[in-house]
Write a structure and sequence with these properties.
By secondary structure, the protein is mainly alpha-helical. It has helices at 15-40, 54-70, 83-102, 108-111, 115-143, 161-181, 183-187, 196-219, 226-245, 255-286. It is built from 10 helices and no strands. Helix 3 (83-102) packs across helix 5 and helix 6 packs across helix 10 (255-286).
Length: 287
């Protein structure tokens, strides 16, 4: 997004946002891989007690899936190019920290368990506290930066994609809101056994995905949502693998299970089709 004078348009990207994104990406790779591998071998290694290994595994899958996209934030030229990724990141950091505090009694550091999981739980809360505060500070600093020039939309989304994006974003946003606000009711609809903390933790990620998809719809520009387009299919693929591994724990005949499959497939199709559209746009621009 560069003006004719060679100057990058939009709001300058704050260094703190780049540092935060990189730090979260590196942490997410390690923690996400740990949760996914533990879940794949049938162990619930999350920070709180879970009745099924699938829930902490899905949290880890989301963390690992978004990490590569976060590492590209530093290569972006403006805030407008990364905000569809950073706003959901802030939702996750602040949301997971809040959920951990609200369900403090279920944390391994309080309820007990293997020493490794107790220490992991303690580190989880401490790290989230630092990152959540850092996210708020970075966002305030970012929004205080002046806009150098309005950013023109160079690659608008095709009209046929917008109703599907609106439906997908509303689905994830609604699911996340329900799990967070009324975990007892909505958690009972999850097609596998979940605790209150599981329901709200999964709700945070669902809400973040909804914010990201709806934000992409509002941006209406493939150039602005490139980092988000990288994260969406990776999260969908990682979640699909965990659901397949734990297929026996899922009530596939239920309506919520079918809805979840539709939402995950929607993420995958959105990411893949978005990347293809962006590639075609680049080819047309350079050809």
């Amino acid at each position: 997004m560069t003006s004719t004078s060679g100057r990058t348009d939009g709001r300058e990207l704050a260094p703190g946002v780049v540092v935060l994104s990189t730090a979260v990406a590196l942490i997410s790779v390690g923690v996400g891989a740990l949760l996914v591998l533990a879940s794949a071998t049938g162990h619930a290694a999350g920070p709180w007690q879970s009745p099924e290994a699938l829930s902490p595994g899905l949290l880890g899958a989301a963390m690992a899936g978004v990490a590569p996209a976060l590492l590209t934030v530093g290569r972006s030229g403006s805030w407008e190019e990364v905000r569809t990724l950073i706003w959901p990141l802030a939702v996750v950091l602040v949301g997971l920290f809040t959920v951990s505090l609200l369900n403090g009694g279920a944390l391994r550091v309080v309820s007990g368990g293997p020493v490794f999981l107790v220490l992991f739980s303690l580190g989880w809360v401490a790290t989230l506290a630092l990152l959540a505060v850092g996210a708020v500070v970075c966002l305030v600093s970012q929004l205080r930066r002046p806009v150098r020039a309005p950013v023109a939309r160079t690659a608008p989304l095709p009209g046929w994609s917008k109703p599907a994006l609106a439906l997908l974003g509303a689905g994830w946003f609604g699911l996340g809101t329900g799990l967070l606000v009324a975990p007892a009711f909505w958690g009972a609809l999850v097609p596998w056994a979940v605790s209150r903390a599981d329901a709200q933790g999964l709700g945070v990620w669902a809400l973040a995905l909804g914010v990201g998809v709806l934000g992409s719809l509002a941006e209406d520009d493939l150039a602005r949502i490139r980092p988000a387009l990288l994260s969406v299919p990776l999260v969908a693929l990682a979640a699909a693998v965990l659901l397949a591994v734990h297929a026996s724990a899922v009530d596939w005949g239920s309506g919520p299970a079918l809805s979840l499959v539709g939402l995950v497939v929607g993420l995958l199709v959105t990411g893949v089709s978005g990347r293809l559209l962006w590639s075609r746009h680049l080819a047309a621009a350079t050809g």
